[in-house]
Amino acid sequence: MIKGLSPHVPSPRYIVLFITSIYLIIVGFGTQHNNGIVGTTRKNGNGCVCHNITPSNNVTVWVTGPATVNAGSSNVYTLHLAGGPAVEGGFNAATRFGSVSAATADVQGMSGEVTHVHPKSFAAGTVAWTFLYTAPATATQDTIYSVGNSVNDNLIPDNGDQWNYGNDFIINVIPAGAPIPILSMIGFCLLGILLVLSVVSFLRSRKIA
C-alpha cells in the first residue's frame, strides 16, 4: 500500500489502468470500425458485436452480381444495406474459395476480405459498396458472406446501432471459357408461360375465325 493512502482507496496505478482500458474499449473500437473491420461475417465471425450483441431484423443486407462466372475471372459485385438508424453504414464481405478486392475508393482489402474505408452516408434509405470477386482457378460452387452495420453516427459503438448478416450469395464457378447461361431458371419459366399464352391465343383466334 502507498504510504498516506487509505486502504480502501485504489492505487493511482490501477486507476490509470482502468481509465486506459475504458478509453480503448470505447474509442479504440470506434476507431477500428470507422477505418473498417473484417472477420465479422458468418464465414469466420459473430457479427458487429461491439455495437450490438445480436443481429437486427430491422436491417437488410444483400449482395447483387452474377450468379455464374468463369473460373479465374474477375466480376463486379455490390453489397447493399438498408434499415436501422440509417445515418451511416459499414460492411464486411468475404468469400470461401475465391478472393475479393476493392473496386472503388470507399472499399479496402484487409486480411483477404473487403470492408469500408470510412463510414458511408445513407442516401434515400440505402447505402452500397462495390467490390471485385475473383473466382478460383477451377470449377466449384463458391459463397460470398456479408454483414452490414447501420449506425446513428453518435461516435460511440453502442446498441443504438443495428447490424445484420446478408444471405449467403452462392456463385456457380464454371470452367474457364465455358459459355455462361443467359437465361436463368426464372427466365425459362417466364419463356414457358409466354409460349403457353401464345398457343392459347392462337387457338382462340382460329376458333373465332
User: Helical element count?
Assistant: 2
Rounded radius of gyration (Å): 25 Å
What is the total tally of β strands? 12
Structural class: alpha+beta
Order of helices and strands: HEEEEEEEEEEEEH
- Cα end-to-end separation: 109 Å
Taking all residues together, what is the mean pLDDT? 82
Overall body shape: globular
* Largest sheet features: 8 strands, mixed
Please report which band the strand proportion falls in: under 5%, 5-15%, 15-25%, 25-35%, 35-45% or over 45%.
25-35%
Which regions have little confidence, pLDDT < 50, spanning 5+ residues? 19-32
Portion in helices: 10-25%
Describe the structure.
- A hairpin with a 2-residue loop joins strand 6 (107-110) and strand 7 (113-116).
- This protein starts with 11 loop residues before the first helix and ends with a helix.
- Helix content is 22%, strand content 34%.
- The chain is built from 2 helices and 12 strands; from the N terminus they run H-E-E-E-E-E-E-E-E-E-E-E-E-H.
- The longest helix is centred in the last third of the chain and has 24 residues, at 185-208.
- The protein has 209 residues and is an alpha+beta fold.
- It is globular.
